[in-house]
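Lecture notes, unit on protein representations.

Consider one protein chain, 562 amino acids long.
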Amino acid sequence: MTDPVAARQAAIAAEKRRLAEQRQRREAAPSHSTSGFVLRKWRWLGVNGAEAVSAVQEVLEELQQASGGEGADGGGHHKEELRKAVEGSPGADALLPAVGALLGQCTPTDVLRHLRTLHAAGVEWLTPEGTDRLAVLCSTAPSLLLARSSRSLTGGPAYSLFTSVAMGGAVPVPRTLLPEVLRWAPLPVIDDLIEHGGILPEDDPWAYRGDDEALYLRARLVPGQVTRDEARALDWTWFLRRAEFVSGEEPDTGGSAADGRPDVWDLLFEASVGDATRLQELDAALPQEQRIQLRNLKAGSHEGNWPRSFLADRGLWALMSTLWDPQSTVDPRLSDFHAWTAIRRAYDLVIEGRVEEAGRQSAAFDRPLKPGKKLPPSMQGILPEALNIAAYAALAREDLQDAEALTERAAALTDEAAGNLRLIRVWRTTPKNSRDPLTNPYLDLGLPHGSADWETRYRELVRESRFDTAKYARLNMIRGRLDQARRNEAGDAVFFRLPLAHSVYEAPDDVPRSIVPPLEPLPRRTPATSGAHMEAVRARASVELLQDFRTTPPRLDRHRSR
């Protein structure tokens, strides 16, 4: 944003410098009074009063000294007209064209200084429109003048840019003039226009700037077109962190904020893997729209009831699973997420030793479908696991016939269940008193099948049950079965295998797109538009005013009225 105080102070400082320089020149010049006859000559040129004449003569003397040689675009003729005017004989017809021509050879800064001197002296050598615009340029509070005079709002490219910045973007620069402005305008001024909506992506401002500034402007307006390499060149950490997260890469822990707090991408990564411990911090770090989504997600976890958009966002499943702890049978037919939650719940119940409940949960996969309803697409891949758990529950209650029927169905869907089917058929032909328990000793210890940590777990349970002889005896029997399996060539193959495929139970590693902040433009990096920037735009605009410079004196009556 433009700093109005700094802009006003710069304009006041420029006017004070002009007055000080003018005072020094007058003190250094020989003192002489201007005759009434000479004053009348100047009055017909629109210069009224001895002080105004003195100010104009100082401008003419400077133009004489700064102009080119004799043959430079008629410079000798113009200088001669200025010399005669300084000596007291201003030409009524030739002076103004000479002044306008020599002003056109000056630098923008000198043009602005000379026009300020003429304006302060009350000399109106510009057209009425040009005079109004000059009043705006010379004002220390241009926005007040512009607010009162709509006629002064438009002009050349530089003047339009000046009025737009002075009015805080309320008056946009006409789009037809933008290409001219964008070639030279200070970058902070361009940032002002971007913030005010005066420059849009379709204006392609980067096409008119050098490589570094062009990249900066693209990042400000079209961040979606910026590559990772370009973001690195800009040192745009937020963009890079977002790109890493959206592409599924684990964020670098070095991306924390300067005050040591984790940034939104650290918090989002933790949430995406099911860590709900810092959701309050994530809530505070997210933009408004994503914050609402997160709160809706938490609200739905009370009953496991979420909108379809959340259920379809597989990146949210781990967090939803953490937040929702169903205490009754989950219907897997509701959605892919419910099917995944149901099979995980069934397996967790087995691990916890609640095999009967696990059997009821796995049986939910085998319920008939209501007319007109469709099964979730993932059901086909999960069903073998559900049948396998249901078969294990049947084994736990010594129902080998039901276990065999269920395992046969599972084996028809996946070859992974063939080993379990062979075991059940062997057990069916073996007298009950001659066979070992049907349950898996790993699962009896609360561990996954084949876990290498079973001995550690066994010792923990033994310490806990040292006063419970029945439980202690059961643990010893479990250990005996595991020791025997290790000595047996078949190893763990003698136990009912559960699960068949661990991948079914794993959380998806998708990105939780429902709560990912959208790609935002690069924040402004330029300082507020300063008084120096405004002076540079003023100077450019003053050069445009030379188009309104008169070639003939203004028509004045004897009362100096137009």
